[in-house]
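for the writeup, i need someone to sanity check this before i put it in the appendix. the sequnce is what the collaborator sent (i think, or maybe the updated version? ugh). structure was predicted straight from it, no edits. if anything looks off just tell me and ill rerun, i have time this weekend
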Amino acid sequence: MDEERLNSGMSLALVDYFRCPKGCAEVGLEGELGAEARVFRLGPDLTCYGRTTRGVSQTVINGDAPDLAGFVRTENSCCALPFDPNEVATNLRRERYVTAGPGNGGKSALAKLKRNAYYAVRPLLGVSIRKHLQRASLKGWEKKPFPRWPVDRSVDQMFEQLLAWQLEARGGGRTPFVWFWPEGMKSCVIMTHDVEEKTGLDFCPALMELDASFGIKSSFQFIPEGRYPTPRKLLNAIRANGFEVNVHDFNHDGHLYDSREVFRHRAAKINEYVKKFACLGFRAGVLYRNLEWYDAFEFSYDMSVPNVGHLDPQPGGCCTVMPYYVGKILELPLTTTQDYSLFNVIGDYSIDLWKNQMALIAKGHGLISFNVHPDYVIESRAFDVYKKLLAYLSEFCSENHAWFALPGEVDQWWRERSQMSIVTAADGKLRIEGPGKERARIAWARLEDGGLSFSVEGGR
């Protein structure tokens, strides 16, 4: 393989994801990348989107996309690829595969007109009416082929496949890396609550008490302008009880990303409220987002990108269950279905879907993140479902060695992990260097049955 291509930044994708030694992640590009991004597959179940060296012409995401796995070469301890994994990961994480664009549910004039009309009358509509409108607008969501419902791990599976190919190129063996979570925990869980209306605001103390009764600490996101005043006394009580406060949108009117001018003005206001609330995190209303504009934000982490966005007004999904960076901001993706969608769009008043999603995410050692609104669990039937979820979460974390954390704790850990590296000590043993290394654990990746298996030193 050409030495210059081998030493390109492509290997950094594996290093950044696994925090493994650079010598264990030697991958490079074979050939010249085409001019435009295209859809392709790596095996039957892994969909990718990016430029390739193979003249791929597929532009629509479906099962007919060409499979490029056969063009991967593994030899001389190196792995030659017909695509750039950095580019593919970024395209998926930033939802660049969505042909409608990154705006509020699409850039078409009709889509914007419908959205504006909906938000004009929304204050007059109760949930009983809104849910029927939303079901109609989302009709056929279950037939969308990509991202894969109910959990999509395309980015994570791509990196796992790359490491497996790299191990094949080296003739097997094992690769050390910094495990994903502190103390060797197998996965991570966070609970968040977006407060939509005054009714939800008034219910926050009771919801906080309920969470605490199950040993769970959560984060509350408040709308800073327009819908309700947020009492300083409530914010102080939330923090005093070990919970977390974050900012939820600006005024939740659906227009945050209407134009660059509107966004810049509101982003500056959001940054001011982040400082005023003395918090580090943010979530946009209705999960509206444009990751290409995030450089205007000054908070530390965001929670606005769904893993699979089939049940949200804005299509897409980041296709990963791991935190990732958008510039300097850490994205904590929403990896489970929101309570509103579960109850009012799907019409399911059980925790079966949540349990299924939790199992799939935990199998991939990812971040299991929830958004349960105080406004929508006040009603007795929904409240009973939420209590069942809390009971199950408490049991799940204990039995599956999952780390139940606040979003801010995940932000701190992931930033520390991103600075860690594995080095060889004078006695020949491997050790982790970097801030927070006391909580970090060395893990090993091995080839097993055609895929990867992980083991963690000193893990639970």
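The longest strand covers residues 187-195. Residues 380-400 form the longest helix (21 residues).
thx in advance!!
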